[in-house]
């Protein structure tokens, strides 16, 4: 159970954005949602969220049903298996620089090209999006996905997160811009002249530590899992989540204790969390929210018991907090998950 609960939830925005191309092309998206275990009713709740399992499943349903890894959002189809073929090519690369160069060479075989190109400066490296042709991506989902997949694939191959120093976007901050804080964990720049990720050049010499059997295992759920399940074990956010644990019925550790456990001062930890676009309070709140959503999907648990499990002594306080997180009461949320929302 712990593994399910350690997963973050995914905003309804990304569910609808992922389905945008399928909807435009006339696919039955309600059927796709049901196949992924998501009640279409849930999406009527303004601030609804789904589990990373459900989101991962939805991505796989989309790719397989549409036969297009660009999900109808790109300038052309990317036939199912394109990503896996690229991975088979880069697994033999000696280091990260070689991975990104090979991946770019592979992507530019297709026309129009949709790729990320590595640019190396004196001490910084940058992955810059190269997109040719007309894209149908009004919610920016294709552009976000390509950045996330190239970043997280590289991190997985070298066995450590590539710490981003900046993420740039050549469009205005979108309405769901707040979600970017938790996707990229670095300073964000909108209305830039490019779409790019900047990181320290030292990562490029990191050796590829994965082998072919690991890659075969990885591809069973990728790139869907790369989008829905970031590996945050090396971020301060992820390490704090692990230290807090899942039992909110007991008093939570305080910030000073957590800083000591992470061998840092409270001041430094506050600064590092600010760099990761979050705070200690927000980490606790989001953990509580995600645990509450997880427990509500287990229909046998009374709502008052869930309130206690996520650390609220008063059910009324839990109701207020949950409404702030999702816009509806825990009861209405559960009805949405069951598909029983009244019209």
Automatic annotation (TrEMBL):
GO MF annotations in UniProt: DNA-binding transcription factor activity; transcription cis-regulatory region binding
Pfam families documented for this protein: Arabinose_bd (PF12625), HTH_18 (PF12833)
UniProt keyword terms in alphabetical order: DNA-binding, Transcription, Transcription regulation
HTH araC/xylS-type domain mapped to chain residues: 238-336
GO cellular-component term (any): cytosol
PANTHER family assigned: HTH-TYPE TRANSCRIPTIONAL REGULATOR GADX, HTH-TYPE TRANSCRIPTIONAL REGULATOR VQSM
Protein name listed in UniProt: Helix-turn-helix domain containing protein, AraC type
Organism annotation: Marinobacter adhaerens (strain DSM 23420 / HP15)
């Amino acid at each position: 159970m712990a593994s399910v609960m350690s997963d973050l939830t995914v905003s309804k925005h990304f569910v609808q954005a992922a389905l945008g191309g399928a909807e435009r092309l006339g696919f039955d998206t309600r059927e796709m949602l049901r196949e992924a275990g998501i009640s279409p009713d849930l999406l009527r709740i303004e601030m609804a969220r789904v589990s990373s399992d459900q989101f991962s499943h939805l991505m796989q349903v989309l790719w397989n049903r549409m036969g297009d890894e660009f999900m109808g959002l790109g300038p052309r189809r990317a036939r199912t298996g394109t990503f896996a073929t690229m991975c088979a090519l880069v697994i033999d690369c000696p280091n990260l620089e070689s991975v990104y160069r090979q991946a770019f060479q592979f992507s530019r075989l297709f026309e129009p090209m949709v790729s990320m190109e590595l640019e190396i400066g004196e001490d910084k490296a940058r992955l810059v999006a190269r997109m040719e042709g007309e894209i149908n991506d009004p919610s920016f989902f294709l552009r976000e996905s390509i950045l996330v997949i190239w970043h997280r694939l590289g991190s997985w191959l070298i066995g450590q997160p590539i710490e981003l120093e900046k993420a740039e976007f050549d469009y205005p901050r979108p309405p769901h811009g707040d979600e970017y804080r938790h996707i990229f964990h670095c300073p964000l720049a909108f209305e830039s002249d490019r779409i790019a990720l900047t990181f320290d050049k030292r990562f490029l010499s990191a050796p590829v530590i994965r082998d072919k059997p690991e890659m075969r295992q990885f591809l069973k759920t990728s790139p869907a899992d790369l989008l829905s399940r970031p590996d945050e074990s090396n971020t301060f956010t992820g390490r704090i989540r692990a230290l807090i644990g899942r039992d909110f019925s007991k008093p939570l550790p305080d910030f000073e204790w957590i800083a000591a456990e992470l061998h840092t001062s409270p001041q430094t930890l506050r600064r590092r969390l600010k760099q990761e676009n979050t705070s200690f309070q927000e980490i606790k709140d989001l953990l509580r929210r995600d645990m509450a959503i997880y427990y509500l999907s287990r229909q046998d648990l009374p709502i008052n018991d869930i309130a206690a499990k996520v650390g609220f002594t008063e059910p009324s306080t839990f109701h207020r907090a949950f409404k702030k997180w999702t816009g509806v009461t825990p009861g209405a949320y559960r009805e949405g998950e069951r598909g029983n929302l009244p019209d």
